[in-house]
Amino acid sequence: MPESRASRDEVRVAVSTVIVALRPHPRTGTSVLWLPLVRRTREPFAGRWALPGGWVPADEGLAAAAARNLFETTRLQPAYLEQLYAFGDVGRSPTGRVVSIVYWALVRAEQADAASEGENVRWVMADELPELAFDHNRIVEYALWRLRTKMEYSRIAHAFLGETFTLTELRHVHEAVLGRPLDPANFRRSIESSPAIVRTDERVTGGRHRPPRLYRYNTAIELADNGPLGTP
Amino acid sequence: MPESRASRDEVRVAVSTVIVALRPHPRTGTSVLWLPLVRRTREPFAGRWALPGGWVPADEGLAAAAARNLFETTRLQPAYLEQLYAFGDVGRSPTGRVVSIVYWALVRAEQADAASEGENVRWVMADELPELAFDHNRIVEYALWRLRTKMEYSRIAHAFLGETFTLTELRHVHEAVLGRPLDPANFRRSIESSPAIVRTDERVTGGRHRPPRLYRYNTAIELADNGPLGTP
DNA sequence: CTCTGTTCTGGTTATCCTGACCTTTACTGA
DNA sequence: TCAGTAAAGGTCAGGATAACCAGAACAGAG
């Protein structure tokens, strides 16, 4: 939520985005969830960390406004963007009534590494969040819950990976999101029975082990069932 | 969406509600989904049917505004109210930019029967909708999809029934929502294995058959997993 | 060249869940 | 007393899942 233009009898509309990336834990090295925060430069909550966002102009769609604000503050262009929830309690902002349409985005690890991290943008681990401005802690909590439940029936893991990937890479994404280890053999079976992911003939050599095959998403199949809205 | 107060550079916030009730089909007699529509009295779309709704005042929460608008236009007080989606495309309304926070509500059959149905409020079957104002057909379509997918893991069927109910009544609710018949024996097993619904010792006599037992929801258990927001 | 550690890959088994179907029970109304 | 109806409970096969085991294929050390 950006600067305030307080006024009575007016409901202002903002967009905020919860962005999630997969990066290694600094100590254990296992992949965990990270998200970028921006430092607020104005009141209210000046100096506090918050989710990237801004006001919605009259001539721009909600998703477009979320993506634009995200790019302007962090230079990130997410591989996945989905509406999460509209937060509109009366007391959310001390400077007037604000309804925030919150979006939820995933970025690939390469993008996250290349993203500008300066004075006012910082990546933090999802389970080590500081106290955020407004009700943003609650928003992040809800976003992570949605991520965990959605992973099961959708192909959102795709957003974290490149065009091709090994089964172990894909399994690491699932493990990071779900927070528990998965059996490699069973995971392989569940993926190979799904038409959304196809095996290629390519292999990856160079590791001290049997070379794994590369897989890719089957773009012809749309498995994620988001209902009549397509990608709501 | 109510009357327009067109102005440039301003994003107005409205709430609309998709309300669903279970009532018998006029010919077949089986229970199907119905929803109440209100006739628009002003431009744009004057004379067309639309979802009940209105503007959000600065001092009222989103869910509260949805419930109040719903009561004022239809006298309905839903047993269940949940946020569905925020629709905010630029061209939704011909009279300026409007972001509609759409809620989704269920009412019991008794309430639906007692509801005022006059010149400007009419109940229609979900699969025989007329052409609605704005993008409301698309909104209803999405709401019904959510209802069908959510029925599986939640206790929302409760909203359609009273305190106690027989398994057949509960099964009829599920059948109406899913649109297909369910095996009574298997349905019984799935319900009895769930801790959310408990069997009482009461029976219902009067039918020309073995008297069924009454069941009730276990209020101590919160099975519906709506995440950290509780009832988002 | 052989050995070893690692991960990939495929297979087996027990278990749970689901759907389809059948039988018995218990009531009302003719 | 009988017929009709729906409740209630049981069986059984098939599919999905989880846990576990074993061989295959590489890189690097010695």
What would you say this structure looks like, in words?
Two copies of one chain form a homodimer. The first copy, chain A, is of the alpha+beta class. The first copy, chain A, folds into two domains: 11-150, Nucleoside Triphosphate Pyrophosphohydrolase (Alpha-Beta Complex); 154-229, Winged helix-like DNA-binding domain superfamily/Winged helix DNA-binding domain (Arc Repressor Mutant, subunit A), CATH 1.10.10. In chain A, 24% of the residues lie in helices and 28% in strands. Chain A has helices at 62-74, 109-114, 136-150, 167-178, 184-192; strands spanning 11-24, 31-39, 49-50, 53-55, 80-87, 97-107, 121-125, 164-165, 197-203, 213-217. In chain A, the strands form two sheets. In chain A, strands 1, 2, 3, 4, 5, 6 and 7 form a seven-stranded mixed β-sheet that branches. In chain A, strands 8-10-9 form a three-stranded antiparallel β-sheet. In chain A, a hairpin with a 6-residue loop joins strand 1 and strand 2 (31-39). Residues 1-7 of chain A have low confidence and may be disordered. Chains A and B meet through strand 1, strand 5, strand 6 and helix 3 of A and strand 1, strand 5, strand 6 and helix 3 of B. The structure holds a DNA duplex (30 and 30 nucleotides).
